[in-house]
Amino acid sequence: MTHIDKRTLQTRSKIESAMVTLCQNHEAFARLTGPKIASAAGISRQTFYRYYLTPKQVITSLIERHLSEFLKTFRLQNLTARKMVLQLMTIWQDRTTVLELVEWSDSRYEFIRALAQFNQRIASQNQVHLINEQTVCNVYAAATYMFLRDYVLKGQWSQEQATDLLLHLTNNMDQIF
């Protein structure tokens, strides 16, 4: 495991906090620049660019970090589609801010791509080999993201209702289970 310098963690935390503040203040993401984020974070623009090339990269990095943390805690043994969806919903309920940032920055594609890679890992674990594996995993990831968004951010359903509906619409994700 690589050790990350404490100052690096503090700087990244400042940048991420600044992004949350800018999102909550309804700043237009499309007009966001590295210097504006740096100013909001209380760091120099050079420091911002040392860590990220673009504002979008901050969001992508957050997505990757949270999904990586999720994968570390994810229980793969005896995994069913229902157990997977319930774990996803529970974990992302505690990460509402990340989903808000994804929506604000229009980073859905990046999030869905990362979920699709996770689905491919599940299919591989279950020794499912499909000719159209990438397409199937992408469709499941897109559906899962939309349900996570509506369940976590909009509170449209109970966890059980959202899980039942998602599994019904995806045939219990039978192509990867």
From TrEMBL:
Origin: domain of life: Bacteria
Organism: Secundilactobacillus pentosiphilus
Record keywords, A-Z: DNA-binding
Gene it is expressed from: tetR_12
Listed name of the protein: TetR family transcriptional regulator
Record carries keyword Transmembrane: no
Domain HTH tetR-type: 9-70
Residue ranges of the annotated DNA-binding region, renumbered to this chain: 33-52
InterPro entries documented for this protein: Homeodomain-like_sf, HTH_TetR
Gene3D superfamilies to which the protein is assigned, alphabetical: Tetracycline Repressor, domain 2 (1.10.357.10)
Single GO MF descriptor: DNA binding
